[in-house]
């Protein structure tokens, strides 16, 4: 009844078990044990499903603390495993629970429910079932995002959720534009910061503006080119004003959005010309070499790193390619659109990002990775370095490091001997 129950959260131990029989063949090579005992996959699957059913039931508990703990445990499970079949059978129950928690819960519970909604859509991928989920949750999320009386954290979580779910689900172009307009109404308020007399409220809302801007930018990457042109004309001259914001995250979000807008503009028009290019590059260069003493060293380092890349993108049309490793595969992030998409899903999935890149059909389609690579136990065993080889490598590295340090110590200690 009304008493708070003792919820045992979904643990790392649960996450480490390969539970789905259809995807056990492509687990991470590091998880393969050479001499470990045989694992009864069917039993572990049943055990996990039993736990998850309990968490779903607890999302209806009278205790807010219990509901939140159950939501967090479901989030951990959804981010670390592919549970498509289990979720498919219970998607409406989960949707109803999430809707109830967002509508009636307090700030922390709303944030947890919004995060679970994102993971629910990531698990289901694009399809009719996900569309049904978004039809139910979309209006609720929009209402919270636009509700000035709701907590900033809840509005921020709902803005992010709205962008991600719409990105995954929406084939309806009018729904896409409607969602983008909702997010625009939020972050464009940051443009008026300089003219705003109540600076405190603006600063308070900055985290919401950042989330809305990033969610809007994600949706811009799937817009038709004619709509992209309209949005570029509308925002490209206003976004540079956000580079002067006191908040580091807002400056970085604005800078990366500008880089992405320039990339899209040049794709639509090879001769694209920006009138205030000199003023913009001057601003970006100042941020890329910022040495203000009143800012923390960590913040300055992060800002300089980001804005060096943004400056190169705007000025030289260049992008520093990054490589992401997951299992035996590699993915190259070679443009701002891909970077924005990757960073968004990484934020949601956390440490489960690599696993989902390996085995989630939807994410593999987004990043054009093809069908999942199926690896049997023998292949995994050949890929894994033996324990003895790893020991030899670590020993050699340790000896080399000790030798190098000893030389440095000898130079410092060369002051003669005394008896």
From TrEMBL:
Superkingdom of source: Eukaryota
Keywords of the record: Developmental protein, Differentiation
Disordered: annotated span: 1-40
Annotated ranges, domain Interferon-related developmental regulator C-terminal: 360-413
Matching Gene3D superfamilies: Leucine-rich Repeat Variant
GO CC annotations on file: nucleus
Chain ranges of the Interferon-related developmental regulator N-terminal domain: 19-315
InterPro entries documented for this protein: ARM-like, ARM-type_fold, IFRD, Interferon-rel_develop_reg_C, Interferon-rel_develop_reg_N
Biological processes annotated in GO: cell differentiation
UniProt subunit comment: Interacts with PSIP1/LEDGF.
Family: Belongs to the IFRD family.
PANTHER family (UniProt xref): INTERFERON-RELATED DEVELOPMENTAL REGULATOR, INTERFERON-RELATED DEVELOPMENTAL REGULATOR 1
Protein name: Interferon-related developmental regulator 1
């Amino acid at each position: 009844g009304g008493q708070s129950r003792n919820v045992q959260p979904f643990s790392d131990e649960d996450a480490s078990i390969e539970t789905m029989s259809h995807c056990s063949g492509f687990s991470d090579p590091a998880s393969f044990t050479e001499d470990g005992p045989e694992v009864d996959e069917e039993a572990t699957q049943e055990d996990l499903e039993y736990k998850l059913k309990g968490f779903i039931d607890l999302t209806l508990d009278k205790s807010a603390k219990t509901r939140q703990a159950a939501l967090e445990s479901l989030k951990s499970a959804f981010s670390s495993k592919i549970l498509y079949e289990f979720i498919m059978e219970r998607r409406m129950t989960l949707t109803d629970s999430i809707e109830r928690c967002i509508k009636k819960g307090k700030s922390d519970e709303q944030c947890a429910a919004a995060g679970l909604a994102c993971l629910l859509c990531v698990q289901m991928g694009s399809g009719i079932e996900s569309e049904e989920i978004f039809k139910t949750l979309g209006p609720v999320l929009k209402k919270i995002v636009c509700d000035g009386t709701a907590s900033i954290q809840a509005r921020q979580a709902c803005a992010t959720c709205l962008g991600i779910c719409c990105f995954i689900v929406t084939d309806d172009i009018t729904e896409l534009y409607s969602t983008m307009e909702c997010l625009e109404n939020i972050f464009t308020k940051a443009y008026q910061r300089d003219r705003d007399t109540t600076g405190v409220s603006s600063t308070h809302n900055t985290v919401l503006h950042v989330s809305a801007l990033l969610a809007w930018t994600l949706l811009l990457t799937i817009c038709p080119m004619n709509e992209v042109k309209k949005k570029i004309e509308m925002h490209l001259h206003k976004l540079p004003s956000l580079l002067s914001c006191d908040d580091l995250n807002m400056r970085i979000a604005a800078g990366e959005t500008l880089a992405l807008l320039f990339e899209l503009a040049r794709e639509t028009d090879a001769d694209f010309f920006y009138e205030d290019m000199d003023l913009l590059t001057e601003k970006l260069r100042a941020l890329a070499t910022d040495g203000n003493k009143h800012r923390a060293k960590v913040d300055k380092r992060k800002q300089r790193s980001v804005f060096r890349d943004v400056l190169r993108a705007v000025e030289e049309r260049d992008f520093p390619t990054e490589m992401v490793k997951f299992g035996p595969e590699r993915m190259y992030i070679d443009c701002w659109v891909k970077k924005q998409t990757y960073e968004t899903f990484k934020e949601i999935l956390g440490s489960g990002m690599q696993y989902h890149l390996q085995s989630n059909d939807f994410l593999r389609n987004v990043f054009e990775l093809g069908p999942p690579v199926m690896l049997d136990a023998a292949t995994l065993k050949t890929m894994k370095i033996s324990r003895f080889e790893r020991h030899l490598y670590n020993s050699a590295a340790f000896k080399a490091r000790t030798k190098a340090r000893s030389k440095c110590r000898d130079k410092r200690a060369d002051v003669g001997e005394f008896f």
